Structure formats: C-alpha cells, structure tokens
Amino acid sequence: MIDPPTNASLFERAQRRIPGGVNSPVRAFRSVGGTPYFVARAEGAHVWDVEGRRYLDYVQSYGASILGHAHPRVVEAVRAAAVDGTTYGAPTEGEVLLAEELCARVAGLEMVRLVSSGTEAAMSALRVARGATGRAKVVKFAGCYHGHSDALLAAGGSGVADQGLVDSAGVTPAAVADTVVAPYNRVPDLDDEVAVVMVEPVAANMGLVPPAPGFLEGLRAACDRVGALLCFDEVITGFRLGRGGASARLGVQPDLWCFGKVIGGGLPLGAFGGRRDVMEQLAPLGPVYQAGTLSGNPLATAAGLAVLAELDAAAYTMLDGRAGELATMLGDVIADAGLPVQVPRLGPLVGVFFAHAPVNDYDDAQVAAGNGIYRRFFRAMLDRGVALAPGPYEAVFPSLAHGRNDLERTADLAAAAAAEVAGAMGPEGEGQATWQPLQPSTVASRPLA
Ligand SMILES: *Cc1c(COP(=O)(O)O)cnc(C)c1O
Fold first, then answer.
1. Fewest beta carbons within 10 Å, which of 15, 313, 386, 417?
2. Burial 324-346 (b: 16+ CB within 10 A, else e)
3. Domain 7-66+312-448 sits in which CATH superfamily?
4. What are 213-254's pLDDT values in tens digits?
C-alpha cells in the first residue's frame, strides 16, 4: 500500500522538480519557516491540507476568492462552461458580457481587454500608455506591486520584498532605464517625458497602506499638468473596495485601470482598460500590439460573471462590516498582549503591521516587516489553525464566507497567539534582539538610473 502524501513528502518532491517547491515565491515559507501546507480542498472560509488539517483561511488566493472558496454558483458556472469546450481561438458571448459588466460598474472605464493575469494587465497597460502618448517613462511607487514584467518589477513589494530583493536579477538596466521609482504617498515631480504614472490606489502589497489625503488627487493633477496618463492598478482593489473599486470609492478617476484577482473568480483572468481613445490604440485598431491564446477564456469569464453577480450593494456592506470587526478585534487582542500593532483598514481591506506608529510608505513597511514579530505570529496562528499569508508584506483577506463566528474564533486564537509571541519575546526572552528594527533600505526609493 502506498502511504498517502503528507505536507513534508510533497514538499520534498516539489523541491526536486519545482524551484523552491512553489510556483510563486509568495507561497514559500522561507521568511516564516517551516513546511508549506499542501491544499487538498477548500470550501467557504476554510482550506484543508493533504493531511486533513483544517485552516481558517485569510489568504483566499491573495484576494482572488472574494466569495470564499468553491462558491456553489461559481462551481456550477465553471462546470457548465467546461462541457461546452474550454478554449476556441474565436470570440465568445462571455467575453462581451464580462466586458460590459466591468464597464457598467466602473465609472470612466469605456473599453477593456481581457488577459490571463494581473501581470499581463499591468504590462499591457504600460505598453498602450507608451504607445498612446509617444513617451517612454513610467513612474511607479516603492512597495507597489504590478506583477513581474521587467519594467515594473523595481521595488515591487510583496514576494519581491519578502525574498529580500530590491530588484530582480535578469532584469537588464536597459529594461528599467525608463522606470522611475518614487516614495508612496508623496506626489512626485513629473516632466513631459512621463507616459504614465502607475499606482496601487490603496497599496496592498507592502501590507496595507491607504493613500494619504490628497495623494491620489495630487497624482491626477500632476499627470494632467504634463499630459501623462494615470493608471490605477486595481488588481486587488477592483470589485473589492466596492462596486466601482478604488476609483469610485476614493473619488479619483484614472485614465487606465488594471484588474485581476476578483474578476476571475479563482480562474486565470485579468483585464486592462480605460479611456476609449487610449484603448483604441490597441491592435487590430491601432499600432500597439497585444494578444493572448487564452485571453477571455470561457471558463474564466463564466467564473468572473458568476462572482460579479453575487457582488451587489448588500455584499459590499457585509464585507465592509466583517472587515471592520476583524480589524478592531485583531488590533485589540494583539495590543492587549503587549505587542506593538497597527491594523490599517480601508473598507474590506485589512493589514497587520507589528509597529508602534502608522505605516505610510515602503520604508515604514520594511521596518515593521523586519522586526521578526510577523514570522512568530504567523507560526502561532498556523499552529492554531488560522492561515495568514506566509510573509509580512501581504494584506489579510476576509471573504464573504467568513461569518461572525469565524471572526470571533480568529480573535480568540489571535489573543492566544499574540500572548505566546509576547511571552517568547519578553524582556528576558530569547527573541529580544529582534525587537531592534532593521534599518530601512535607502535603495528602495531611489529613482533608477
Ligand atoms: C497580484 C497583483 C498583480 C499581479 O497579478 P498576477 O495575476 O499575480 O500576475 C498586479 N498588481 C497588483 C496590485 C497585484 O496585487
């Protein structure tokens, strides 16, 4: 008889054939220690690993599963689509319906093109912005992640930061020659060489960092002054912060948007879009080339439409309320245990920083992430059956499947986890040295040459 796989046995095999044993570095446990749990199945707010252990899941595919896992309507939509064939190389009704639905929800979004990931969306938005303006430079912000295309990877937050990388090897100086990195929450000076300013309107890949009052308005005005385009990367915020995403909620309208995560309902789907005159620069209408064999895939559009159908005003009110309760309870129980903590929240988005003061940019985030507390708290929570992201630069993602009892359980377990961490790190504790914050990287906010 063959032994059933365990987390350890699968990880051992994975490492032999997959670099680091994972197909995306954010899934590795390198910064938190231990062996990743291999998921066998998931339902609602929970995932089960291959050993049958259940976790209350706040990863939710980094925000892709806003309804929770395996929502019956999404499962049924995918099942129904699959029997009709999974890809054709010809257009489908589902693509039209999804494009119409996205544009109906987001004010100012006039045309979209569907792609297969957030990376592709951001990469393609940058290309069409450059093509439409005839300019080269892109301004991005330290700690904002726009996927892993060469030009946008600099000071990328999320997994890049968690691997201790400022940039990536294999990205040539030429590839980032037109990329300028500025500190988040400060409006940079722009000139007339800037094609596009790319920003996460609520930064959610360096923990959660809401925009400072006036930041997004300032970017809008600065772009208008020099004729640059403004692009909101709403791969996380889109259809999560509300029906119209961050632009509607925060009242600033960009020229271009990037979407992903929520709109695919757990299948590979992204989109970029915006002003009609800009989007009409794309082939086959215009000179900017962009394409994809699986773009607008029928399973993905079916899943996306099924998710959006559930996201009405009541759903957003509920998600906001749940996130608010979670944030308040987490902040209270962790502070009661004597740990320094900040729990920023904007609508349904929640972050946890082990820091004494609010985090406003990537330098602050790196200090908070570098003190070693997150790693301990993560492990103490995982031991108790609560899955947070295995790195300090990720947001917390409650879904619509997280009920009040789940949140209360989370708070109870977080209280015990925080007490354990505080005990281990007390004045006599062996972890005392790690209370000293690391120096923030000075490289992070330098403009690239
Ligand atoms: C996740 C993410 C991306 C990249 O999306 P992928 O589907 O992982 O390629 C881009 N931008 C933001 C803001 C993201 O959070």
1. 313
2. ebbbebbbebbeebebebbbbbb
3. Aspartate Aminotransferase, domain 1 (3.90.1150.10)
4. 999 999 999 999 999 999 999 999 999 999 999 999 999 999
117 in contact with ligand 1, CB cutoff 6 A = yes
Domain ranges of the chain: 7-66+312-448, 72-310
Segment 286-341, tens digit of pLDDT? 999 999 999 999 999 999 999 999 999 999 999 999 999 999 999 999 999 999 99
Distance between Cα 373 and ligand 1 center (Å): 26
The domain 72-310 is placed in CATH, from the list 3.40.50.150, 3.40.640.10, 3.30.470.20, 3.20.20.300, at 3.40.640.10
Does the beta carbon of 295 sit less than 6 angstroms from any atom of ligand 1?
Answer: no
145 a catalytic residue: yes
Atom 14, ligand 1: residue with shortest CA distance: 235
Q: Which of 66, 158, 236 to mutate to test the pocket of ligand 1 (most atoms within 8 A of CB)?
A: 236
